[in-house]
Amino acid sequence: MKHTIWTKPFYYVFAFFIASISLYPIILMILSSFKSSAEIFTSPLAFPKSFTLETYKNLLDQIPFMTYFLNSTIVSVVSVSLILITSSLAAFYIARFTFYWNNMLFFFFLMGMMLPIKLGIVPLFILMKDLDLLNTLWALIFMYTATGIPISVLILTGFFRTMPHELEEAARIDGAGNLRILWNVVLPLMRPALGTVMILQFIQSWNDFFFPLVFITDEMKKTIPVGMLSLFGQYSADWGALFAGLTLASLPMIVLFFIASKQFMEGLTQGAIK
Amino acid sequence: MQLATDSAKEVKKQKKRNWKRWSIHLFPIPALLIYGLFVVYPLFAALTYSFFDWNGMVRGDFVGLKNFKDLFTLEPFSGYFWNAFGHNILYFVLQMIFQNGLAFALAYIIFKKIRGAEFLKISYFLPRLLSVIVVGFLWKLILNPNYGALNVLLEKIGLGHLQEAWLGDPDTALIAIILVNSWYGLGFGVLIFLAGFQSIPKELMEAGKLDGATGLAMVRRILIPLMIPSIMIMTVLTFIQSFEAFELVYAMQGSQGEPYHSTDTLAVYFYRLAFGGSTGGSTTAVGLGSALAVVLFLFISIFTGLYLKYMQKKQVDM
């Protein structure tokens, strides 16, 4: 089949048509959040005629959104920090030192990427109960840290291996210990890799709702995604409030994405390719 | 006297040097502890749980393979199991077609350098930023039979006869969910395939052109073989994700896989067994649930392993 005159226009129409299918539901969600329920029912596709913020006010009056938001922020920030610390220590060890068990160790961490952790949820539930962590943010922090470690170790080990040794050796001759070398010499050079891990894990922990679904029943300990779950049970008739809730839940990520879209997209794919 | 302090200093120095040398072995320990306790231990525990009789969340007698036998043959458990298993297979096949097939084509178009590539990439990727629960609820509203945007849209463009109660009809509910999942994952696939296209050496494409390969022949003979690594990644990821499918079904159709279990998946069924609601009530069946987890786990790892091995061989052969 030769490239014919209509190939290029066909590409354009096709690519932009699919793009509109990707975007339209999100735009619809945001626009609908400014409509009253009545207006959504009568004209769901039109632009909002009366721009109302009433839906948001209703929503915030009835659900503790700020609490959810704060919980999500704490859980994500703490677990991403823990992931960065523990994974870079482990990856530094695996990539920079050659002990005969290093490959085994690497493989042990890798295993975690193939095993669906959801399947261990019953023992996890019992473990969390025994550790008295049910209904605490720590349960989520530990889960996101533990499940984030495998891929982070993998990405960071890959980057460590590509870095030249000379600077480290110079620091070692100057008498610097391992921790100092990692902190002062290696990590500053690793910013791109650390950024990748950070973004990847941040999306993961911010958006997850499986672990809070199982571990959290206390309203004040919920993160945004599980908070949304109860929202749907309570307000099934108030579509305006529902759309407002979905928009609020998505806004932080969308804003972050527009600040750093390239890093976001690279971060997620790096995670899969590396 | 002077000599003694000198040697004491020397010993101290030596100790410090030794500490510096072996302290490195402490580095992987925090990661190992957290990962070991919250990922590795629970998975192995789930394996042993499957050999015991469970009374609620309390462990009873050792029963050998009885849980496995019940899972496969005892009604109503076996009925749920095979029903959900079929849905998982369909999930995988349709995801491969809708999500990955489309993603491959779109990545190829972007790779051909059309204008607006950056805008297109961002548009395809944007849904991936939403929480799965938001995706589920958003589409539940859009697919609502009375006020949902899709049916209204169909009406407006004169296709009113195609209107459906998408999520309420057992014939369309599962396909609707799979399509929503493809909508969510499309952009990620585009990025993976695009990275694959971009890693193909230009010389190979040039050589192909000189040999007179154009259009589809070029795609089939040169692009696809060179794309095997990214095709492999997407296939494995899609496979694992299809057999773990839980969040979207739970968000859109609840823990029973409504209507009439027509959207049930193994992970949703597993959730019911583990946390109650397996037969509509609230009794848990931890032993059966663990057996299901083991089966699912073996199934995923065996197939992924075989597939990776097969594809690697294929890659070497070329």
From TrEMBL, chain B:
SUPFAM superfamilies: MetI-like
Residues passing through the membrane, by range: 22-44, 89-111, 123-142, 173-197, 218-240, 285-308
Pfam families: BPD_transp_1
Domain ABC transmembrane type-1: from-to ranges: 85-307
Domain of life of the source: Bacteria
Gene3D superfamilies found in the cross-reference section: MetI-like (1.10.3720.10)
Biological process per Gene Ontology, one example term: transmembrane transport
Transport in keyword set: yes
Subcellular compartments: Cell membrane
Gene Ontology CC annotation, any one: plasma membrane
UniProtKB keywords: Cell membrane, Membrane, Transmembrane, Transmembrane helix, Transport
Membrane topology: Multi-pass membrane protein
Primary localisation category: membrane
Family statement: Belongs to the binding-protein-dependent transport system permease family.
Identification of the protein by name: ABC transporter permease subunit
Organism the protein comes from: Pontibacillus yanchengensis
Lineage: Bacteria, Bacillati, Bacillota, Bacilli, Bacillales
